[in-house]
């Protein structure tokens, strides 16, 4: 018996578990589950996911992006000092000798590391991959510790706001294409925020901390955020009030023009740069036909340290159109911005490559689409099987195996029952349940006559076809349907 | 200055690095790289990978498999005692509070955990995903610490050898389809191996250790394996010699029949079961038309603990056909077997679900295909862009942006230069370099006449097309090419 003081957390849990186990329950071994905050994706979920990812990737390719893949873990130092207050959420690997490693927290930092390491000065790439964050798992809100991100980024020195406008166009194309209901993209600029902090009198050492507070305005009221600034972050109340006057503003391009006239902000060089870029951005967005989807929102701050210019975040404005669906709070579904200083952090000489990009939060989109399909009772086929090879007779396994090999070799998606003597009804039921459209049936009579019966599962019609013509006939039927 | 005794590996490396740095070299900060034994995949590599994975997945779908995804990490206890001597290669996550986690070592154990956790008794699934092993990275041989596996498994209680035969058929279809040259699939059965060990006089406590030695016969001579058995694992020399008589045998179905007649082996119940199943397997493989690709090889042992019946491994017989290519030692490219006891290890009541499956070692296949493409100087397009929007004039950015948005909205893959005033020659060169087939050109004259010039990059022919007809004309051209 170990001393109580030496019991670590796990041992306590075991003891506690034994105490709480109801009398009579015998537990030979524990049920293994996946780890907290992660999940398995069932075949149904995989089908939904595959459709959404296909749609996202085809949009990225439409905009000329190349694919790129990076390892799941990076050197720990690569991730250090990139994520501000969120750095505590990084998963570290155990030191088992060798390098100190961490699971990637996003796809942006590995991309910047790749650019610096390979001295790439210009690249438009997409990356679909998992990232890991040690968040408190609140799965009801679609927050996981392992989740998939779809990123598109443009690296390179270009004329201002052209790549930035394309990123917003891509977000619009994807969100419209997925038919998630109405959406809005909030836009702001880190330089405008810094300008506001400066003209309001925030000490420069507090810019990051105050920026983090502003970032909470999508979840907290201004009153609570103001309280945090004053009580927790030691800001003078009158400075907080001045900030409040700004960060509660949002509007279209007219707000940009209004801010240009603002007596205090127009004195700040950084803010003017940001406002100038936003004005240009709105011009391009108008040419792209998406300006009405964009809102200049001074409360948008984005949590991550590495942004240096324009930032944006797409939010769904309402739950999908139909009133009978349960409302689902999904918040932001895509976000991004400009990070001109990140690549330089990885380059031995500090050479920078300006970058702008976006990330689609597909997990939230999965939840919405899944919920919608449940509401409408949509049935999803989890296999693509086209033909089932069946028999009404006993001892026909050999014939079935020969026949199905012919189908597979012709590229036809086919299944059979892994039994020597299955019942015909069981075989036909399986086809109906799985949505398999065609059945080929071989029995004694067919063998004698040198034919195969081809049955349509939907109409239950059967026709006899010679063995030589079977593959061609199946291919014809499949191409028609 | 820390005491020398307190310096850990990293600090030593820094000191050592400073000593070795050539005079005059100034290093402001380190070049960040990916971690040892992992790699980034460049856009070229991604194109090759995507083609290979598409081909593998379409084969899995042809055989009726559903998709499934599991998290990158599992509870540490889920992976414990599954991998025999290789358990030391598992990556653990740092204990940051909460559960003890490990990165998955393969896709098989998470699949078995999924089946038990969800009480699934029958399932045919595929899974393409990364796995992680702390191997000594010998990248020259295509061995990485992070690599992709493509798994197909059939779970359920069925009549013997039908799913097993389908697994071998799938391996043949994939290896033939990828045109990797000639290949052979070695087949054996764990029960036959155990039978051999028993009749040769190996104590049962040494079965696993001796099986691990036999497993090395693909890399070591019998002499060296025998030495390991006798000197390191304490086996009597005459027992080792008896084993040697068996494990050096390989052949077709005739060897199965010969083993049935073997005076010692035919006395062992387990071996007889294995031989009976192999006989049946060969029958089915003949019906599938692949028997000549299969070799009954008594030296095949497979490293993993969880196999309980038939096991198999596909090896390439020669480097790709052409003599001018450098030879590449790739060893086994696919493997698998039957594991009837694994699911029960995760079920609270120990209920088992028999399983059989296979895993395609795609990293090695990537190396071969990449090598082949290099040898033949094949050029790979890394983007799918169909149309480039160009201008010969200054101040035409607005028109270009309007035009490209029209193309994107019509689903056409299009790019433009992110510059206000790019040179026409630069724009056309880019199209040639990137293999973009079409260019639309808009300038003053076109704007005045209400037309767009459509240029074929290959033929350099240009025609004027009215703006209204542009999308339709582009779609027509693309569908013809």
Automatic annotation (TrEMBL), chains A, B:
GO cellular component annotations of the record: cytosol; mitochondrion
Domain Aminoacyl-transfer RNA synthetases class-II family profile: 36-392
InterPro entries: aa-tRNA-synth_II, aa-tRNA-synth_II/BPL/LPL, Anticodon-bd, Anticodon-bd_dom_sf, His-tRNA-ligase, HisRS-like_core, HisRS/HisZ, HisRS_anticodon
Gene3D superfamilies: Anticodon-binding domain, Bira Bifunctional Protein, Domain 2
Keyword Hydrolase: no
Positions contributing to L-histidine binding: 106-108, 133, 149, 153, 302, 306-307
Known catalytic reactions: tRNA(His) + L-histidine + ATP = L-histidyl-tRNA(His) + AMP + diphosphate + H(+)
Keyword terms of this UniProt record: Aminoacyl-tRNA synthetase, ATP-binding, Ligase, Nucleotide-binding, Protein biosynthesis
EC top class named in words: ligase
Catalytic activity, EC: 6.1.1.21
Top-level taxon of origin: Eukaryota
GO molecular function, one term: identical protein binding
GO biological process: histidyl-tRNA aminoacylation
Family: Belongs to the class-II aminoacyl-tRNA synthetase family.
Name this polypeptide is given: histidine--tRNA ligase
UniProt organism field: Delphinapterus leucas (Beluga whale)
Gene name, Swiss-Prot/TrEMBL: HARS2
């Amino acid at each position: 018996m170990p001393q109580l003081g030496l019991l670590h957390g796990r041992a306590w849990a075991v003891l506690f578990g034994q105490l709480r186990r109801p009398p009579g329950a015998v537990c030979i071994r524990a049920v293994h589950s996946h780890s907290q905050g992660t999940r398995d994706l069932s075949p149904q979920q995989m089908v939904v996911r595959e459709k959404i990812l296909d749609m996202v990737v085809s949009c990225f390719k439409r905009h000329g992006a190349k694919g790129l893949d990076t390892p799941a873990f990076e050197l720990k130092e690569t991730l250090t000092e990139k994520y501000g207050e969120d750095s505590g959420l990084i998963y570290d690997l155990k030191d088992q000798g060798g390098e100190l490693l961490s699971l990637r927290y996003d796809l942006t930092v590995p991309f910047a590391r790749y650019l610096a390491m390979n001295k790439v000065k210009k690249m438009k790439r997409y990356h679909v991959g998992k990232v890991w964050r040690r968040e408190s798992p609140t799965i009801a809100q679609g927050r996981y510790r392992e989740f998939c991100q779809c990123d598109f980024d443009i690296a390179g020195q270009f004329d201002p706001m052209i790549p930035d406008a394309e990123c917003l166009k891509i977000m619009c194309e994807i969100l419209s294409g997925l038919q998630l209901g109405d959406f809005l993209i909030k836009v702001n600029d880190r330089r405008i925020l810094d300008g506001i902090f400066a003209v309001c009198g925030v000490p420069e050492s507090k810019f990051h901390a105050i920026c983090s507070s502003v970032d909470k305005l999508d979840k907290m009221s201004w009153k609570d955020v103001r309280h945090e600034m004053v009580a927790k972050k030691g800001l003078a109340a009158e400075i907080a009030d001045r900030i409040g006057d700004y960060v509660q503003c949002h509007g279209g391009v007219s707000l940009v023009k209004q801010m240009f006239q603002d007596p205090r902000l127009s004195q700040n060089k950084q803010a003017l740069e940001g406002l100038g870029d936003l004005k240009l951005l709105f011009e391009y967005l108008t040419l792209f036909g998406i300006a009405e989807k964009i809102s200049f929102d001074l409360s948008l701050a984005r949590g991550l340290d590495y942004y240096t210019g324009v930032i944006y975040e797409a939010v769904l404005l309402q739950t999908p159109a139909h009133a009978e669906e349960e409302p689902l709070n999904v918040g932001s579904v895509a976000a991004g911005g400009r990070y001109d200083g990140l690549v330089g952090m990885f380059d031995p000489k500090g050479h920078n490559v300006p970058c702008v990009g976006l990330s689609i939060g597909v997990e939230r989109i999965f939840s919405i689409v899944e919920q919608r399909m449940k509401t409408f009772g949509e049935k999803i086929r989890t296999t693509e099987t086209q033909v089932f090879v069946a028999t009404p007779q006993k001892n026909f396994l050999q014939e079935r195996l020969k026949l199905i090999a012919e189908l597979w070799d012709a590229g036809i998606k086919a299944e059979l029952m892994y039994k020597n003597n299955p019942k015909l009804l069981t075989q036909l039921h399986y086809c109906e349940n799985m949505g398999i459209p065609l059945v080929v049936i071989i029995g004694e009579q067919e063998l004698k006559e040198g034919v195969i019966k081809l049955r349509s599962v939907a109409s239950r019609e059967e026709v006899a076809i010679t063995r030589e013509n079977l593959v061609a006939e199946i291919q014809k039927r499949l191409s028609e349907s």
